[in-house]
């Protein structure tokens, strides 16, 4: 029987997460988002904020630790309940920064517009 307690976590991952503070005094959560973004910067991990969350890249353990720290930070700022949606991806065939994925799609779209110019 396999000893699952010795099974390692992936060496690298990209996680897209949306932390949702519940029970804030107003509908705005910009102060909580700003606090989490300060944590992201201090973490030293690659990250990028977008309109509905943050993309974070690093080892599985580091990424999950920082997301957990974001929960603690928001709790310490007076929010009693925090919910987070996380989508995480790993791959073993090559290293690829999350910005490279976006750049690849953007280059395909750029080629589409060039093809349209050539057709006229």
Description:
With 120 residues, the protein is of the alpha+beta class. The chain has a domain at 11-92: Alpha-Beta Plaits (2-Layer Sandwich), CATH 3.30.70.930. It has three helices and four strands. It has helices spanning 30-43, 60-76, 98-119, and strands spanning 13-22, 46-50, 53-58, 81-89. It has a four-stranded antiparallel β-sheet with strand order 2-3-1-4, with helices on one face. A hairpin with a 2-residue loop joins strand 2 (46-50) and strand 3 (53-58). Helix 1 (30-43) packs antiparallel against helix 2 (60-76). The longest helix has 22 residues, at 98-119. The radius of gyration is 19 Å and the shape is flat. The model has no long low-confidence stretch (mean pLDDT 92).
List keywords for this structure.
alpha+beta; Thiamine_BP; Cell wall biogenesis protein-like protein Ecm15; 3 helices; Alpha-Beta Plaits; 120 residues
**Biggest sheet strand line-up:** 2-3-1-4
Q: Which fold name is given in CATH as the topology of one domain?
A: Alpha-Beta Plaits
Helix content: 40-55%
Query: What fraction of the residues are assigned to beta strands by DSSP?
Result: 25-35%
The profile of the biggest β sheet is:
4 strands, antiparallel
Shape: flat
Q: Do you know the CATH architecture of one domain?
A: 2-Layer Sandwich
- Given as residue ranges, the uncertain stretches (5+ residues, pLDDT < 50) are none
Structural class category: alpha+beta
Mean pLDDT rating: 92
CATH class identity of one domain: Alpha Beta
Radius of gyration based on Cα positions: 19 Å
Cα distance spanning the termini: 65 Å
Q: Total number of β-strand segments?
A: 4
Number of helices: 3
The succession of helices and strands, N to C, reads EHEEHEH
